[in-house]
Amino acid sequence: MTDADSTTCAVVGGGPAGMVLGLLLARAGVEVTVFEKHPDFFRDFRGDTVHPVTLTLLEDLGLFEQFEALPHSEIEKAEFEIAGRKVVVADFRRLREPHPMLALVPQWDLLNLLADAGRAEPTFTLRMDAEVTGLLRDGETITGVRYQGPDGPGELRAELTVACDGRTSTVRSQAGMVPREFPVPFDVGWFRLEATSPIKYQLTPRISDKRALILIPREGYFQAGAFLPKGGEQQLHARGLDTFRAQVAALVPEASADSITSWDDIKVLDVRVNRLAQWHKPGLLCIGDAAHAMSPVGGVGINLAVADAVAAAGILAEPLKRHRVLEADLSAVQRRRKRPADLTQNAQRLMHRALSRVLFGSRLPKPPAIVERAGAALLGLAPAIAVVPAYLVGVGLRPERAPQFARRPARSATNATSTGDDPAEKKTS
Predict the structure, then answer these.
(1) Contact indicator for 96, 349 with CB cutoff of 8 Å
(2) Helix crossing, 327-359 with 301-321: angle to 10°?
(3) Is it the case that residue 149 has pLDDT exceeding 50?
(4) Cα–Cα–Cα angle for 329, 57, 172, rounded to 5 degrees
(5) Which of 53, 116, 147, 279 has the fewest CB neighbours in a 10 Å radius?
(6) Region 104-122 average pLDDT
(7) Phi, psi (rounded to 5 degrees) for 289
(8) If DSSP codes are grouped into helix, strand and coil, which group holds residue 417?
(9) SS3 category, 383
(10) Is the distance from CB of 273 to CB of 348 less than 8 angstroms?
(11) Rounded CA gap, 17 and 163, in Å?
(12) How many Cα atoms occupy the beta-carbon half-sphere of 165 within 13 Å?
């Protein structure tokens, strides 16, 4: 084993939370090292929805023009069919945000953009293909990490370690922190569908008898997610691949289900909703999914994780620069971010109940016709109402803005250089 080197802050996990936190702390002049266990960012079937509040953050960081140059889809509104007419129930155009829309962008592109911005900072280090395997301790205090890198095992001492390594966090587990689990009635099987005609993205799932799908448009194909009863992968297989393809074809006539050639083409995500009662220990902080795992319903995971990172950077930059981070500082991060995360999870759990009725074989009850007509009339007469769900989805509870020390003027995409690898070589996890 190599001798341990050191840094001020070790960030474990190169997802949106880890990359944003690393970038912001580096712009404050804090020495920060980010660990990403994979050799690149090219893994499909990850959160791709970037909400208006996160687009504003990219604007503050001087990165929006580069982001805008990435391949992406823009969604300005969400519609439901009520009483035979389409009604806008979430209108992002009404938000008082610089970029009032949802952007759907491959996460690997967003992460490469953040990585390039980080590399421009002299105190930023990104270690790819470096998996954190354990923690260093001095009594009850976490003092750094053990990792396995391309050149073998190593240790990195750190004044603060931040777990951004997701819902199955190794750091959280190694620290003996156990989240409270909430029941989730479904898993999601992610797969690729080749496009045969254009499609408009919808925030709501496509639902038929005992099947629900969500669709994310890509260039020439769709990233599709099939909701399955919890633990229902074996039952799915028992019904046969032809049956599944037929169900998909009926729900998505704009795509070819023939692109699903085997069960290996479907990656089943074990959906979890959980949260820590306490996000920190001496020398350690958990944020993002490591602190509060989110369901894919609503596509809010990226944005909550990023908000955690922005808040953490704003609170911790000065203590880290002084080399004196107290548990009170870590507690301040949790106090700021825990309630928005808890309330969002609670809203997701309510939405899960409706989906479970579909997945477990009972159709959603159809409201009386008079109720449908009244709802359509109300929304038709007062379209401004559509700004409320748009705000809850697109901005959320307690939005975070970039601290002043991290803000930069815009840098055009043509002048930006990317050191990321070719996305044609993407890998699936």
Answers:
(1) no
(2) 170
(3) yes
(4) 40
(5) 116
(6) 93
(7) -65, -20
(8) coil
(9) helix
(10) yes
(11) 9
(12) 26
Query: Which structure tokens are listed for 170?
Result: 């190794």
User: What is the CATH topology of the domain spanning 5-70+105-181+274-357+399-425?
Assistant: FAD/NAD(P)-binding domain (3.50.50)
The residue assigned the tokens 């930006």 is 416
User: Residue ranges per domain, the chain?
Assistant: 5-70+105-181+274-357+399-425, 186-269
Identity of the residue numbered 299: G
Bridge partners (DSSP) listed for residue 74: 103
Q: Amino acid identity, residue 239?
A: R
Q: In 3D, which of 50, 163, 33 has the Cα closest to residue 110?
A: 50
DSSP string, 172-224: HHHTT--PEEE--SEEEEEEEEEESS-----SSPEEETTEEEEEEE-SSEEEE
Model confidence pLDDT, tens digit, residues 220-246: 788 888 888 888 888 889 999 999 999
Contact 50, 88 (CB under 8 A): no
- Per the structure block, which two tokens stand in for 51? 């909400």
Only one residue has tokens 């890198």, namely 149
In tens, the pLDDT along 307-336 reads 999 999 999 999 999 999 999 999 999 999
Question: What pTM, to 2 d.p., does this model score?
Answer: 0.86
Q: Write the burial class of residue 129 (CB in 10 Å: 0-12 exposed, 13-18 middle, 19+ buried).
A: middle
Token pair 């629900």: residue: 212
From the number of C-beta atoms within 10 Å of its C-beta (0-12, 13-18, 19+), residue 365 rates as exposed
Give the ranges where 220-326 is alpha helix by DSSP (H).
233-239, 241-251, 301-321
Closest C-alpha to 252, from 288, 221, 292, 210: 221
